[in-house]
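Hi,

I'm pasting everything inline rather than attaching a file, because the server keeps stripping attachments. The sequence lines come first, and each chain or strand is labelled.
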Amino acid sequence: GDSVTQMEGPVTLSEEAFLTINCTYTATGYPSLFWYVQYPGEGLQLLLKATKADDKGSNKGFEATYRKETTSFHLEKGSVQVSDSAVYFCALGDRGTASKLTFGTGTRLQVTL
Amino acid sequence: DTEVTQTPKHLVMGMTNKKSLKCEQHMGHRAMYWYKQKAKKPPELMFVYSYEKLSINESVPSRFSPECPNSSLLNLHLHALQPEDSALYLCASSQEVDSTEAFFGQGTRLTVV
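And the predicted assembly:
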C-alpha cells in the first residue's frame, strides 16, 4: 500500500537558519504530494502541493519539488522564523487526488531566537 | 469563505454517553471526510462522503456512525466509546472526490472517560 516516510524530529533551528525536512514515498500509480502544517492545538493547514513529477509547490517561503526518480518531496525554507514552529506532515493523495490522504508521522520544528 | 467549521472544539464524554460531532462547510464542496488523529500521530482516514453518500469506510467500528444530512453538513455520531477513542477528530472537504486540494477544520478534541 501507499506510505510516506518523514525524517524523525524534533528539528531545532535558530531563527534565519535553512530548513530541510525530508520526505519519501511509496505509491502505486501517480499520487499527488502535499505538505500540511499543524500549529499547537489546531487542525491542519495546507502549506503546498504538487500534482505531477517535477512540479514545484511553494508558499510562504517554503518549497518542495516532486521528484519521481527519487520518490521524494523534501520541504525547504531558506530562512525560518520563530512563527514557523509547528508540526509538518508530508502526505500523498490516492490517484493524484486529495481524496484519501496518507500522512507521514510528522516532524516537529522548533525555531529559537 | 474557505473555512471548514467543526463543533464543539472540545468534548468530554463518558463511555455510556451518546454525543455528536458536527462539521460544516459553505464552499460548495461535494466531498467530505472524517480523520482521526491520536496524540503525536498522523491523521488517519475514517470515512469519505461523496455527494452525500458514504463512499469509503476504513473499517471503522460501528460505535462511530457518520451522517451527511446535506451537502454542507457532516456529522459523526458517537456511542459507547472507549478511552482509547480519545483523539482529535478532523473534518475535511474538497470540491470533488478527485480534487487535488482538501481543506481541514480545526478539529474536535475528544476525551472519553
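The interface with chain A takes residues 6, 31, 33, 35, 40-45, 48, 56, 88, 90, 92, 94, 97-107 of chain B (CB under 8 Å).

If the labels don't parse on your end, tell me and I'll reformat.
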